[in-house]
Amino acid sequence: MMIVTTGHSPDENELLRARRIAEQAGIRLVARKRLSVPNLFAHYGADSVLIVTQGKVRLFREDQPILEYHPSMGYVRAKRLLKGEADPMIAASRAQEGDQVLDCTAGLGTDSLVFAVQVGPSGLVRAIEASPELSVLLREGFFSYETEKAAVSEAMRRVEVIHADHLNYLKSLPDNSFDVVYFDPMFRKPVYDSSAISPLRLYADNRALSEESIREAVRVARKTVVLKEKKGSGEMERLGFTPDDRNHAKITYGVIEVD
Fold first, then answer.
1. pLDDT digits 0-9 by tens, 65-118
2. What is the pTM of this model?
3. Considering only the top CATH level, what class is 2-64?
4. What's the 3-state SS for 75-108?
5. Which CATH number is 73-257's, of 3.40.30.10, 3.40.830.10, 3.40.640.10, 3.40.50.150?
Protein backbone atom coordinates (compact mmCIF):
# COMPACT_ATOMS: atom_id res chain seq x y z
CA MET A 1 0.00 0.00 0.00
CA MET A 2 1.21 3.49 -0.84
CA ILE A 3 0.40 6.54 1.28
CA VAL A 4 0.91 10.29 0.91
CA THR A 5 1.85 12.61 3.74
CA THR A 6 3.69 15.86 4.45
CA GLY A 7 6.56 17.23 6.52
CA HIS A 8 6.22 17.69 10.27
CA SER A 9 5.01 21.30 10.03
CA PRO A 10 3.33 21.66 6.63
CA ASP A 11 2.07 24.96 5.37
CA GLU A 12 -1.24 25.32 3.53
CA ASN A 13 0.36 24.87 0.11
CA GLU A 14 1.97 21.59 1.11
CA LEU A 15 -1.31 20.30 2.52
CA LEU A 16 -3.20 21.26 -0.63
CA ARG A 17 -0.57 19.66 -2.84
CA ALA A 18 -0.57 16.42 -0.84
CA ARG A 19 -4.37 16.31 -1.00
CA ARG A 20 -4.36 16.88 -4.76
CA ILE A 21 -1.80 14.11 -5.33
CA ALA A 22 -3.82 11.69 -3.21
CA GLU A 23 -7.07 12.48 -5.02
CA GLN A 24 -5.51 12.22 -8.50
CA ALA A 25 -3.83 8.89 -7.76
CA GLY A 26 -6.61 7.42 -5.63
CA ILE A 27 -4.28 6.77 -2.70
CA ARG A 28 -4.58 7.51 1.00
CA LEU A 29 -3.56 10.86 2.50
CA VAL A 30 -2.45 10.47 6.12
CA ALA A 31 -1.44 12.82 8.94
CA ARG A 32 2.29 12.90 9.73
CA LYS A 33 1.70 12.91 13.51
CA ARG A 34 5.35 13.77 14.19
CA LEU A 35 6.27 10.28 13.07
CA SER A 36 9.73 9.61 11.67
CA VAL A 37 9.92 8.15 8.15
CA PRO A 38 10.72 4.60 9.40
CA ASN A 39 7.80 4.75 11.83
CA LEU A 40 5.37 5.79 9.09
CA PHE A 41 5.67 2.34 7.50
CA ALA A 42 4.79 0.48 10.69
CA HIS A 43 2.14 2.93 11.90
CA TYR A 44 0.14 2.92 8.66
CA GLY A 45 1.11 -0.50 7.29
CA ALA A 46 2.54 1.10 4.17
CA ASP A 47 4.86 -0.40 1.57
CA SER A 48 5.84 3.00 0.18
CA VAL A 49 5.48 6.59 1.35
CA LEU A 50 5.31 9.75 -0.74
CA ILE A 51 6.28 12.82 1.31
CA VAL A 52 5.49 16.37 0.20
CA THR A 53 7.84 18.95 1.76
CA GLN A 54 9.16 22.40 0.82
CA GLY A 55 8.19 22.16 -2.83
CA LYS A 56 9.63 18.64 -3.18
CA VAL A 57 8.03 15.23 -3.51
CA ARG A 58 10.10 12.25 -2.40
CA LEU A 59 9.33 8.55 -2.58
CA PHE A 60 10.44 6.21 0.22
CA ARG A 61 10.59 2.46 0.63
CA GLU A 62 11.86 0.85 3.81
CA ASP A 63 15.67 0.55 3.87
CA GLN A 64 15.93 1.72 0.25
CA PRO A 65 17.37 4.87 -1.37
CA ILE A 66 15.07 7.88 -1.64
CA LEU A 67 13.69 8.56 -5.10
CA GLU A 68 12.94 12.11 -6.23
CA TYR A 69 11.92 13.36 -9.66
CA HIS A 70 14.62 15.00 -11.75
CA PRO A 71 14.74 15.28 -15.56
CA SER A 72 18.41 14.19 -15.52
CA MET A 73 19.82 13.59 -19.02
CA GLY A 74 16.38 14.32 -20.46
CA TYR A 75 16.99 17.99 -19.75
CA VAL A 76 20.41 17.94 -21.42
CA ARG A 77 19.00 16.19 -24.49
CA ALA A 78 16.00 18.53 -24.60
CA LYS A 79 18.27 21.59 -24.63
CA ARG A 80 20.29 20.06 -27.46
CA LEU A 81 17.11 19.50 -29.47
CA LEU A 82 16.11 23.12 -28.95
CA LYS A 83 19.50 24.14 -30.36
CA GLY A 84 18.83 22.08 -33.47
CA GLU A 85 21.20 19.25 -32.54
CA ALA A 86 20.42 15.63 -33.40
CA ASP A 87 19.16 13.03 -30.92
CA PRO A 88 19.58 9.30 -31.77
CA MET A 89 16.16 8.35 -30.39
CA ILE A 90 14.40 11.07 -32.38
CA ALA A 91 16.33 10.13 -35.52
CA ALA A 92 15.38 6.45 -35.13
CA SER A 93 11.70 7.20 -34.46
CA ARG A 94 11.34 9.88 -37.17
CA ALA A 95 9.14 11.81 -34.72
CA GLN A 96 8.18 15.23 -36.05
CA GLU A 97 6.32 18.27 -34.81
CA GLY A 98 2.64 17.45 -34.36
CA ASP A 99 3.18 13.68 -34.00
CA GLN A 100 1.52 11.53 -31.36
CA VAL A 101 3.91 9.35 -29.33
CA LEU A 102 3.15 6.50 -26.92
CA ASP A 103 5.98 5.78 -24.47
CA CYS A 104 5.10 2.32 -23.15
CA THR A 105 7.79 2.14 -20.45
CA ALA A 106 8.03 5.64 -19.00
CA GLY A 107 10.11 5.16 -15.83
CA LEU A 108 11.03 8.69 -14.75
CA GLY A 109 10.11 10.13 -18.11
CA THR A 110 13.51 10.99 -19.62
CA ASP A 111 12.52 9.90 -23.11
CA SER A 112 8.94 11.16 -22.81
CA LEU A 113 10.32 14.63 -22.12
CA VAL A 114 12.57 14.54 -25.19
CA PHE A 115 9.67 13.39 -27.36
CA ALA A 116 7.48 16.18 -25.94
CA VAL A 117 10.03 18.81 -26.93
CA GLN A 118 10.28 17.31 -30.41
CA VAL A 119 6.55 17.04 -31.17
CA GLY A 120 5.75 20.46 -29.68
CA PRO A 121 2.43 21.88 -28.47
CA SER A 122 0.56 20.52 -31.50
CA GLY A 123 1.70 16.96 -30.74
CA LEU A 124 0.93 14.49 -27.96
CA VAL A 125 3.08 12.33 -25.69
CA ARG A 126 1.40 9.74 -23.52
CA ALA A 127 3.62 8.01 -20.95
CA ILE A 128 2.58 4.58 -19.65
CA GLU A 129 4.11 3.35 -16.38
CA ALA A 130 3.25 0.02 -14.74
CA SER A 131 4.53 0.95 -11.28
CA PRO A 132 1.92 2.85 -9.27
CA GLU A 133 4.65 4.57 -7.24
CA LEU A 134 6.63 5.72 -10.27
CA SER A 135 3.53 6.87 -12.12
CA VAL A 136 2.55 9.13 -9.19
CA LEU A 137 6.08 10.52 -8.83
CA LEU A 138 6.41 11.12 -12.57
CA ARG A 139 3.00 12.79 -12.91
CA GLU A 140 3.79 15.16 -10.07
CA GLY A 141 7.31 15.80 -11.36
CA PHE A 142 6.06 16.73 -14.82
CA PHE A 143 3.34 18.88 -13.26
CA SER A 144 5.55 20.91 -10.94
CA TYR A 145 9.26 20.71 -11.79
CA GLU A 146 10.72 23.96 -13.10
CA THR A 147 13.79 24.06 -15.33
CA GLU A 148 15.75 27.09 -16.46
CA LYS A 149 14.34 26.64 -19.97
CA ALA A 150 10.66 27.61 -20.21
CA ALA A 151 10.23 25.52 -23.35
CA VAL A 152 11.37 22.39 -21.49
CA SER A 153 9.11 23.05 -18.49
CA GLU A 154 6.19 23.61 -20.86
CA ALA A 155 6.96 20.32 -22.62
CA MET A 156 6.83 18.50 -19.26
CA ARG A 157 3.36 19.87 -18.56
CA ARG A 158 2.08 18.45 -21.85
CA VAL A 159 3.02 14.82 -21.15
CA GLU A 160 0.07 12.65 -20.13
CA VAL A 161 1.08 10.07 -17.50
CA ILE A 162 -1.05 6.94 -17.15
CA HIS A 163 -0.60 4.09 -14.68
CA ALA A 164 -1.21 0.90 -16.66
CA ASP A 165 0.32 -2.30 -17.93
CA HIS A 166 1.53 -1.41 -21.41
CA LEU A 167 0.21 -4.57 -23.09
CA ASN A 168 -3.28 -4.11 -21.67
CA TYR A 169 -3.20 -0.46 -22.68
CA LEU A 170 -2.05 -1.25 -26.21
CA LYS A 171 -4.86 -3.78 -26.58
CA SER A 172 -7.38 -1.07 -25.66
CA LEU A 173 -6.28 1.23 -28.49
CA PRO A 174 -7.66 1.34 -32.04
CA ASP A 175 -5.45 0.59 -35.05
CA ASN A 176 -3.10 3.35 -36.24
CA SER A 177 -3.77 5.60 -33.25
CA PHE A 178 -0.20 6.84 -32.57
CA ASP A 179 2.59 7.83 -34.92
CA VAL A 180 5.35 6.36 -32.76
CA VAL A 181 5.23 3.59 -30.16
CA TYR A 182 8.34 3.44 -28.00
CA PHE A 183 9.82 0.89 -25.58
CA ASP A 184 12.72 1.35 -23.19
CA PRO A 185 12.55 -1.73 -20.94
CA MET A 186 14.73 -1.86 -17.86
CA PHE A 187 17.90 -3.73 -18.80
CA ARG A 188 18.07 -6.89 -16.71
CA LYS A 189 21.88 -6.47 -16.51
CA PRO A 190 22.80 -2.79 -16.04
CA VAL A 191 25.13 -1.25 -18.61
CA TYR A 192 26.65 0.92 -15.89
CA ASP A 193 26.00 1.90 -12.30
CA SER A 194 24.17 5.18 -11.86
CA SER A 195 22.92 6.96 -8.76
CA ALA A 196 19.91 8.09 -10.83
CA ILE A 197 19.06 4.66 -12.29
CA SER A 198 19.86 2.28 -9.39
CA PRO A 199 16.93 3.36 -7.14
CA LEU A 200 14.61 3.23 -10.15
CA ARG A 201 15.37 -0.47 -10.65
CA LEU A 202 13.63 -1.22 -7.33
CA TYR A 203 10.30 -0.14 -8.81
CA ALA A 204 10.71 -1.08 -12.47
CA ASP A 205 9.08 -4.00 -14.25
CA ASN A 206 11.95 -6.41 -15.02
CA ARG A 207 10.01 -8.69 -17.33
CA ALA A 208 11.28 -9.11 -20.87
CA LEU A 209 9.13 -7.54 -23.57
CA SER A 210 6.72 -10.01 -25.11
CA GLU A 211 6.24 -10.66 -28.81
CA GLU A 212 2.55 -9.94 -28.25
CA SER A 213 3.41 -6.41 -27.03
CA ILE A 214 5.35 -5.77 -30.22
CA ARG A 215 2.54 -7.11 -32.42
CA GLU A 216 0.10 -4.80 -30.66
CA ALA A 217 2.51 -1.87 -31.01
CA VAL A 218 2.82 -2.47 -34.77
CA ARG A 219 -0.96 -2.49 -35.01
CA VAL A 220 -1.25 0.78 -33.09
CA ALA A 221 1.63 2.66 -34.78
CA ARG A 222 1.28 4.73 -37.94
CA LYS A 223 4.97 5.35 -38.51
CA THR A 224 7.48 3.45 -36.33
CA VAL A 225 7.88 1.17 -33.35
CA VAL A 226 11.17 1.83 -31.55
CA LEU A 227 13.08 -0.26 -29.01
CA LYS A 228 15.98 0.98 -26.90
CA GLU A 229 18.28 -1.87 -25.90
CA LYS A 230 21.79 -2.86 -24.96
CA LYS A 231 23.92 -3.88 -27.93
CA GLY A 232 24.36 -7.61 -28.18
CA SER A 233 21.46 -8.45 -25.86
CA GLY A 234 19.68 -10.44 -28.57
CA GLU A 235 16.40 -8.61 -27.93
CA MET A 236 16.40 -6.83 -31.30
CA GLU A 237 16.63 -10.12 -33.16
CA ARG A 238 14.14 -11.89 -30.90
CA LEU A 239 11.50 -9.20 -31.34
CA GLY A 240 12.03 -8.41 -35.04
CA PHE A 241 13.68 -4.97 -34.84
CA THR A 242 16.32 -3.63 -37.21
CA PRO A 243 19.11 -2.18 -35.04
CA ASP A 244 20.58 1.21 -35.83
CA ASP A 245 24.33 0.55 -36.08
CA ARG A 246 25.37 4.07 -37.01
CA ASN A 247 27.04 4.67 -33.65
CA HIS A 248 29.32 2.67 -31.38
CA ALA A 249 27.56 3.34 -28.08
CA LYS A 250 26.65 0.47 -25.77
CA ILE A 251 22.98 1.40 -26.15
CA THR A 252 21.22 1.33 -29.50
CA TYR A 253 17.77 1.84 -30.98
CA GLY A 254 15.93 -0.73 -33.07
CA VAL A 255 13.14 0.20 -35.46
CA ILE A 256 10.18 -1.49 -37.08
CA GLU A 257 8.96 0.68 -39.96
CA VAL A 258 5.19 0.60 -40.21
CA ASP A 259 4.42 3.11 -42.96
1. 889 999 989 999 999 999 999 999 999 999 999 999 999 999 999 999 999 999
2. 0.91
3. alpha beta
4. HHHHHHHHCCCCCHHHHHHCCCCCCEEEECCCCC
5. 3.40.50.150
